[in-house]
Amino acid sequence: MMTRRLSLLTHPESAAVRQVSALNRRLPDLSHRVPTPRLGLACALMLVSMVLLMLARVVPLPGWLPLLGERMFGVPTPVIGRVTLYTVALVLLFGSYVYALYCVHRSESARLGRMVVAFTGLLTLPGVINPDLFSNDVYGYIFYGRMYFVHGLNPYVVLPGDAPPDPFISWVDWRNLISPYGPIWTSWSVLLDLVVPGGLGVHVVAYKVAGALMHLVNTLLIGAVVRKISPHSTALAMAAYGWNPLPLTEFAGNAHNDALMLLWVLAALVSYYYLRPLLGAALLGLAIATKFTALLFLPFYMLALLRGQGGRRQRVQRILAVCGLIAAVWVVSWLPYVRDGGWRQMFALPPQSEWYLNSLPAVVYNALRDLIVSLWKLAPVHAGDIADGLVRTLSIALILIVGLRLGRRIQGRSDLVEMWFWLLFAYLFFAGPYFWPWYATSLVVLAAISRQRYVLLVTTVLSLNALLVYSCSNCHTYFRGVSDSSLTGLVIFLLPLLTLAVVMLRDSAQRAAALERIPELG
User: pTM for this one?
Assistant: First the structure.
């Protein structure tokens, strides 16, 4: 009896279970009082906040605003007004999101899953119709597809700036950059250019609609995964992802290609949990051919298959088949773009991997470079090379250490999502040199599926911080110290890390207190 109690107290999820049990003892049973009315209020507040967030940078400001003066703290008053409006809308949106998740968790409605999906579709509408874009990447997507379809150029060889005169080129930011995306996404861009008529505005709306639909499909796929491993949490998991403001903004509002990459990843995960590992491998190959960061999902997927059912020979054959499928998908997806030397990009990393921006490694890199310059009086270029080598060496070592430690913990099918989350967490926080808010959407997906609720808490804080970057994204002249600089890494990642530290310390303290009570329980 004592052994059984000790095993329950030291189980990885026991702290979370005890917290929920303690909370349920302190609070009255609200399940019969929190169904439709309060959840409906939370959803209405979310929808209003989402509309306000989307329009915060374009809605007319109050007429009395000039009465405050032309400038405040050296910044034009309209800029302060828009930043304030955006920030208030964002905080209100995340507050209503958290409360809505609480209502979903407490509700026992049999139709809750369908309501979550329907409201997810409704929440995508403000982003689709938003006349403002928080990111201009969609213009690059459109033009790379247009280069191939309209001008007959290979976007992996020819720069957008070298294309023939085109009315769309003036909207493209990266005119001196060949396509940094995978061939599946480029082919998707070509397809949209083929089927979408009209000017640039119509193309942007088409990409937004496609992103919103992908977001909705991703929500359904998350439901399919969680229904297999934890059926009672299906609606909560779908709401945790589908209603999160970060993917809603990035996929429906900004039409980022991470939506398609995550669709393939989730489809691969569904195949894996429903015992179709080879189909999952092919889908994972499509994810990698959409965006190269999906490579981070591959090692643990193969390790999970290696530790799956069957003898050693069967598992080795399974791994070889997986490798062959992914290689075949990669080669076939590149076939339209191998001409004129485009095949070289099959083996090249995207150019973003060479830059430092908006990340903790960027903060470390800049500090090391400045320190080397001051200590050894080297030229900034040479000091930057040394700092770059040190940071990349440390990043690779960190990822290898984290990967090896996590790999040992994969024992069964249910461990894959947790291992994926912590590897991506380590990469985005400590190893990735280049970061933008939409990169965190992968963590949002995995946190929704995870059985560890504090993972959802940390990811929600990260989502809020990431979207705060957009409050100043059009105000570089006045907020250079906060927006689009190395310091942005501290702004984005410091609070989630502090939240994680507090939760882990609290968890450790509760576990220690529980262990001290073992003699009393006995």
Answer: 0.87
